[in-house]
Amino acid sequence: MKFFLDSANLKEVEVLASWGVLDGITTNPSLLSKEGKIDPEKHLKAICKLVKGPVSMEVFSTEAAGMVAEGKRYAQWAKNVVVKVPMTPEGLKAVGLLRKAGIRVNVTLIFSANQALLAAKAGANFVSPFIGRLDENGEDGMTLVEEIRAIFDNYAFGTEILVASVRHPRQVTEVAMLGADICTMPFAVFEKLIHHPMTDLGLEKFLADWNKRKK
Ligand code: E4P
Fold first, then answer.
1. Which residue of 2, 12, 28 sits with most ligand 1 atoms within 8 Å of its CB, as the best mutation to test the pocket?
2. Domain residue ranges in the chain
3. pLDDT digits (tens, 9 = 90+) for 38-58
4. What is the fold, at CATH topology level, of the domain defined by 2-214?
5. Atom of ligand 1 minimally distant from the CA of 106
């Protein structure tokens, strides 16, 4: 499974890129707005320099024509830009048009298997099921990932399942077991994947024993 960082923060991108396990980035308007007064073009170009894999940049327009125009502009910023469009009728229209122009597309705000199926049929490269928000709404994000995996395998869709809205490390394990292609997560979840209290204690003991040796 590929690991993406769900963030527009350059420091976080830099730290994770240095670990050697970062396969891509997802951003959205909320994450970009957290960065304050930025020039989206300069900011995205900076991210794309740090990470070779796909970097998703979401459109702001709600009409297909506007989405396509924005997407074509983003695609000129860097080779690894992926255009993120919302799961709406206009978004679906934009998928086909952007794909015809040779631009990769990620369909976001996926909350049902039928939405994922539609996005795949339209030609999306990635679909982003939002599992954390579903759980918070009293539904089951993990079941959604399972359903999408089964459907994409049944019909041999090449569309990648990019699990999004991840809240904790256990979800990372579970979506990997279900065969998700990608998991995007915030920096805090990424960090938690590394740590275990027994690792820290074990290391402490090894070093203490070494320091106690007869010199
Ligand atoms: C995915 O691409 C989205 O950026 C993301 O995971 C949103 O999730 P959240 O706002 O529920 O955390």
1. 28
2. 2-214
3. 999 999 999 999 999 999 999
4. TIM Barrel (3.20.20)
5. 2
